[in-house]
Amino acid sequence: MTVKINTKFIQEFVETNELAALEDFVAASHKKIHDKTGAGAEYLGWLDWPSKMEEAELSRLEEAAEKVKSDTDVLIVIGIGGSYLGTKAVQDLLLPAFGAGGTEVIFAGHNISGRYLEELLSHIEGKKVALNVISKSGTTTEPAIAFRILRKWMVDAYGEEAANRIIVTTDEKEGALRKAADKAGYTSFVIPGDIGGRYSVLTSVGLLPLAVAGVDIRSLLEGAALAESTLANPALMENDAYLYAAYRQILNSRGYSVEVMASFEPAMAGINEWWKQLFGESEGKQGKGVFPASVIYSTDLHSMGQYLQDGRRMLFETMVSFTEDQNQTEIPFDEEDGDGLNYLVEKSLHEVNQTAMEATALAHAEGGVPILSLEVPKLDAQHAGYLLYFFMKACAMSAYLSGVNPFDQPGVEQYKQNMFELLGKPGYEK
Amino acid sequence: MTVKINTKFIQEFVETNELAALEDFVAASHKKIHDKTGAGAEYLGWLDWPSKMEEAELSRLEEAAEKVKSDTDVLIVIGIGGSYLGTKAVQDLLLPAFGAGGTEVIFAGHNISGRYLEELLSHIEGKKVALNVISKSGTTTEPAIAFRILRKWMVDAYGEEAANRIIVTTDEKEGALRKAADKAGYTSFVIPGDIGGRYSVLTSVGLLPLAVAGVDIRSLLEGAALAESTLANPALMENDAYLYAAYRQILNSRGYSVEVMASFEPAMAGINEWWKQLFGESEGKQGKGVFPASVIYSTDLHSMGQYLQDGRRMLFETMVSFTEDQNQTEIPFDEEDGDGLNYLVEKSLHEVNQTAMEATALAHAEGGVPILSLEVPKLDAQHAGYLLYFFMKACAMSAYLSGVNPFDQPGVEQYKQNMFELLGKPGYEK
């Protein structure tokens, strides 16, 4: 049940000896990761998290989630970046596209749009609401603004009872949110100090809202734990996450500077966004990095497809597909066959979709786009957990191969500094 | 009420004389567009469409929409590419983020996912459903599959009445869908023969589902008509759509080969996707074209922000903002000020959001990213219409400036050929 890289379409672009040339570098980087001796090693808590997460904490999360599910129509998750994208990604992938029933999980504090917040406020009118505020410091501007406004709404709606409907996920000891939680008696969960935002989806950051939304979080963790052991193999040729990382860097070094993450499964849209943060924020520094972009086919074959086929040749494409046919829909016979589809009548949609993928890979490869293919056996919680960990491990390796720290994000501070100056925040005046 | 380009951040990257050097080329390309003498001129029907669309057709669209609204819970729009992205874009921009009430408009036929279609079928169970099938030929694989399956569902649910719940938008005379409509007596609307998919949002393709969804389509057209007249000005320095096109090409020629469309308004997400098709499919050919990507801030400041600030320098950024503060939400005072936000108490969210944008533009410009800024006075249907036309006009100009036909998409055929071969479509066997 592991994620495999299919080299069918990349063989003509990258020779085996190019990979072999990286073996030592990969082995050294593997050692850096596992011995925690590389740049940013203090943020390697995610590495053995799936196997070491405590049962007591998991049970407490499940209890909190059950409580929310029992008395809440809408859970508002307040968070930005890694406190938002992982939950959204898994929700998109595993829950029905048109709503799962049960407690609805929506997001706030990931933008500063007054329009969005007003629409959210009108959406929750008359409903039973709970908040899950996720922020290490509690002072990140976007979620802090949303929390201030929504906390006021909660107090107006529930009075003293509001505190029983607010769950805080934050640092164990430090920060404004920890203080607020301790003072008001909010239920609280810990963001491990050694796990950065974009590597945090498998901690309480993602697990609590996902459990509320109806995701089987134990299976998610099981899949991640399997990935943790499988991908601890130091040998490049036997470790698919490292192979993915190595191919990326080989292509990057040849001038393929944009990676297009592609899937024929629309439920992958959220994973694509999460993946962009993971790789963009980990690698996009010191003037380096593959630019991460994404498409959902076949929608985008009728949109970005033309560019992929014939545009500027600086792209490579990574296609994620799910092997097992988990659906029953077949194409019905039609006497008149006006649309000419009767040749498909004995085929399932899955078969047609997989064929469309192969056809696209062939076309784009012929058009000069190197294609990496990642095969996931099945679309379920366990495999989702595996896939998330696969990308995190690959990202750490890829960043070390390109010579940058996978775990910092110094460039994110610049806009904040400017914003504080322009808004006249005390201590930041020009 | 026109869309203006703010040159504040681009001045340090592009000198006025670089623009001036393009004036003659722009004038010649303007003539090509308006005299219909350039490549693909047979697809210039969109150019004067907003002013020439007939009142009778508009009324008929509104009547059909009213009928759907009166007896339907869910309208399923079946279409791909331009038959999907424009409607989704305007819906996202103008309707409430958490649902508008009234008839729900959802999409099918824009992917081949069995999972998606099964979730859709379970979503519509027990509801009153109508279909709007949009396809020029009626044989494009993705929408044809969805229509075949959903038509069967409709016949099972409504028997002979199903025909009164199916609306077809297709070619005036030709194609499988026209034949099916004539035979079954479906209400039908025409996709003008001289307007390609990605330029079709203001025709019946977009207007019918948008009217059902609750968009004021007359205001949308009014805004587009204002753009049509305003942007008919041949002078580069007085035509903001041409200025946008010229800046893009100047930056492209300097190696800025990725354009990141950015907005601080989450409702812009759909416009970003529509814009990617418009520019990607129009310009991405013959090994040329700026690669179109997009972000929604400040979500993506905590994701792609690091890359934008410090990653490989091949990017420029186009920020779309809405000037007027149309919301009331202010940040409440908090005695304890644990989050340190009291310095924002007299500011509206809009003001903070606009400041975040300026702070980001400053930061990214300093990081070596040229910033184009497009200012839209207000977020409403009229301005949406203006903005759509603005991009279409800019795209035609930009493609001519880069020497390609803005209206064809030869590369989209390749995956289809392969797919037909692999699926054994009669006439395409290997």
From TrEMBL, chains A, B:
Protein name: Glucose-6-phosphate isomerase
Enzyme category, top tier: isomerase
UniProt EC number: 5.3.1.9
Record-stated family: Belongs to the GPI family.
Single GO MF annotation: carbohydrate derivative binding
Pfam families linked: PGI (PF00342)
GO cellular component, one term: cytosol
Function: Catalyzes the reversible isomerization of glucose-6-phosphate to fructose-6-phosphate.
InterPro entries referenced in this protein's UniProt entry, alphabetically: G6P_Isomerase, SIS_dom_sf, SIS_PGI_1, SIS_PGI_2
PROSITE patterns for this protein: P_GLUCOSE_ISOMERASE_3
Active site: 281, 416
Gene3D superfamilies: Glucose-6-phosphate isomerase like protein, domain 1
SUPFAM superfamilies: SIS domain
Catalytic function, reaction form: alpha-D-glucose 6-phosphate = beta-D-fructose 6-phosphate
Alphabetic keyword roster: Cytoplasm, Gluconeogenesis, Glycolysis, Isomerase
Pathway(s): Carbohydrate degradation; glycolysis; D-glyceraldehyde 3-phosphate and glycerone phosphate from D-glucose: step 2/4; Carbohydrate biosynthesis; gluconeogenesis
Any single GO BP term: gluconeogenesis
Compartments, as annotated in UniProt: Cytoplasm
